[in-house]
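Recap from last week: sequence in, structure out.
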Amino acid sequence: MTIQRFETGPRMSQVVVHGNTVYLAGVVASNAAGKSVTEQTQDILSIIDGHLAKAGTDKSKLLSATIYITDMKTFGDMNKVWDGWVSPGNTPARATVEAQLASPQYNVEIMVVAGK
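Predicted structure tokens:
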């Protein structure tokens, strides 16, 4: 089976496709860094949509998601955006973890795996 990599750098690839499975690295906000959890989550999910499309799939084929947030008090704000974005009836297995992220400007990071 072939492996495709997109946005590959010296440390990681943002997207890896192996067979019919698409793996995304953790995604943080690029346009909304330093803004609210709501704005960061919207930005991240838009980026995820783009990465999935590049790999030939979409959010209706999500298999799993891991969400990292810096403060569980913002769990509801993040979920409001997530619930409006995720494909009804196609929700993935999911975990949400409170964690310190790589930079203080980030409050949310999302990592997903999808089928093709």
